[in-house]
Specification:
With 316 residues, this protein is an alpha+beta fold. It has 10 helices and 10 strands.
Length: 316
């Protein structure tokens, strides 16, 4: 069980001759660590950074995929030039952290809100969605060699990113509280996982899966319709009947295949036509625009923490 700690936001920036780490505890001044061309952190700085990450519950956006391996390199004595190589391998070559050959290091108490946030997008896109007061683009191309004055601009940019991250963290408190509840219930840390990843982790735990199990290539199953699902429209009743009678099997890839009975099924709802996919319904229009007027308004509805809510409400 994690011991409650104060919370801090953190972020990093990388250029060919400059690397920056900022960690800001909520309501307190920011801790800043800078490396210029040819520099590496001293043993005292490395110990100080490691101690900070042990003192706080640290919050990031894509920290697991990007910032953690970059910090790992800095704690290993890398210079900005070497860190830029890691940066490019992650961003340009799309390598995952475990493919970089770095020593293993992760913060003791870490929340990565990227997967928790509904939908998909960059931190700046989420900043727009939650109406942050200031949104700022990276001031210089990542390949640009910075002057001293430009380094200060990058520092100010990073400070704004930390402020945006804190606003996003506050906006996501309902989703994070659900994950904290589930983490306590199941004894695993679910705070940095998406709804689907939460469901997968809990199901694996409940099924006693500790690793990759042998695939049962003869496995087949049908969909058991919950008693609270039903429809009044005849076309939806017919579609539900086809889905409930369809037999699902594994394909050669190990993924569930679409039953033939559902492949050509068209579902008409209002003026829209939908196809059934393994993950849900897919609308068929090639392009469409909807405009509000004096009689009609537009609303965008999303389900908050859908899979965790199902787990909590059904007691699974």
């Amino acid at each position: 069980m994690l011991i409650p700690r104060p919370t801090a936001m953190y972020d990093t920036e990388c250029y060919p001759n400059f690397w920056l780490l900022k960690l800001k505890p909520r309501g307190c001044p920011t801790h800043s660590y800078r490396l210029k061309a040819g520099e590496s952190f001293s043993a005292a700085q490395i110990a100080e950074i490691a101690a900070l990450f042990q003192r706080y519950t640290v919050v990031s956006f894509n920290g697991l995929g990007y910032d953690v391996p970059m910090i790992t390199g800095s704690l290993s004595g890398f210079t900005p030039e070497q860190l830029k190589v890691i940066n490019d391998r992650i961003i340009v070559e799309k390598l995952r952290p475990w493919q970089l050959g770095l020593r293993e290091w992760r913060p003791d108490d870490h929340i990565d809100v990227m997967e928790v946030a509904p939908g998909a997008g960059s931190q700046k896109q989420y900043a727009g969605r939650i109406h942050c007061k200031k949104m700022q683009d990276l001031p210089y191309d990542p390949s640009h060699t910075l002057t001293e004055a430009e380094m200060l601009e990058v520092e100010q940019y990073c400070e704004n990113d930390l402020a945006v991250l804190e606003e996003l963290y506050v906006a996501l408190r309902p989703q994070l509280q659900q994950r904290e509840t589930l983490s306590k219930r199941y004894g695993i840390d679910l705070r940095s996982k998406s709804d689907a990843q939460v469901a997968e982790a809990v199901l694996k735990l409940r099924c006693g899966c500790r690793g990759k199990a042998e695939v049962d290539w003869d496995m087949q199953f049908t969909y058991r319709v919950p008693p609270y699902i039903g429809y009044q429209l005849p076309q939806l009743q017919a579609a539900l009947g086809l889905v409930s009678n369809a037999v699902f099997r594994l394909g050669a890839s190990g993924q569930v295949e679409m039953p033939q009975a559902l492949e050509k099924l068209d579902i008409i709802i209002g003026q829209s036509v939908y196809k059934v996919g393994i993950g849900g319904l897919h609308s068929q229009e090639k392009c469409v625009s909807h405009v509000s007027d004096d009689q009609c308004g537009l609303q965008d509805w999303d389900v908050a923490s859908y899979y965790p809510s199902l787990i909590l409400n059904t007691g699974e």
